[in-house]
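Hello,

Our lab assistant flagged a job as stuck in the queue for most of the afternoon. It eventually completed. Since we weren't sure the result was trustworthy after the delay, we are filing this so someone can double-check. Below is the sequence as submitted and the structure that was eventually returned. Let us know if re-running is recommended.
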Amino acid sequence: MLKPIKGQHHVSAITADAKRNYDFYTKTLGLRLVKKTVNQDDTSVYHLFYADERGNPGTDLTFFEIPRAGQTRYGTNSISTTSLRVPNDEALQYWKKRFEENGVEHEDILTHSGRATLAFKDFEGQRLMLVSDEHNEGVAGGTPWDKSPVPVEHAIIGLGPVMLTVAKLDNTAKILTHVLGFREKRTYKNGDHELVVFETGEGGTGAEIHVEERPDLPVERPGRGSVHHVAFRVESQEELNKWVDYLKELRIPNSGFVERYYFKSLYFREPNGILYELATDGPGFEGDEPFEHLGEGLALPPYFESQRESIEAKLKPLDTKE
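-- returned structure --
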């Protein structure tokens, strides 16, 4: 029998500029770069992992660098907002001031689905939102890195709700509920549009997907500033193997088991074209680097180590020891 999915594992997005991306997510947002590695499906580009102090599952926001990526044309059938958890409402006041001081595009502090939020964008138009955990019950957040430029009491503690914009709500809802085991929890309004909240596991901000139906929009054309996929947490490789078998039984096209070294994965697309990943909680990021030096060097899984020289030759140097 399958165990419930535990919540968000990571979100992977696209950047065209690894250096500016690194500066924004570490120096402005105060996240820790826990792994500087390569896209395992295209080793000519970086894959950067930002998270809490050690990259605990549920705290990772990752980026593939695609230098020639065009600007995203926002639309439907997309992962349209990635939210990041902060400890309380007071933290949002800190962040609003920080964004103003750093010239970060942002909106006012608003309430969405009963929680205080602060929407903003990075330098490439990546759609992000801070969400307060002040009244949260459910999946626990991570542990901020104490060497971050952001005070621990205001720091980002993990991924919050992931928002999907789709052309046909029913198609996405059936996959979330009938296949992945999410529960439909509530609805709320964002302007003129209604969003449906689905939750899994212990629930709360770290285990919710918010879905907006927008058949009036064109399909999103992804590029820099878009999200590539969202990953959900399963606790072990044994559990992941059960999911491989289950999707096969349902005749849902999927990748089968994929070795990512830092975790194990399974990929498939839901009917609106959004890419989902199931990823194990471990082994984690400390198998090839000590905790104190996570993200400082180019880390390669063992099966790529023999290609290190040729891989490094294709990458533009990125100093992450600052």
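-- support follow-up --
The delay was a queue issue, not a problem with the job. The result is valid. Helices lie at 18-28, 89-102, 169-179, 237-249, 308-314. The first strand starts at residue 8 and ends at 15.
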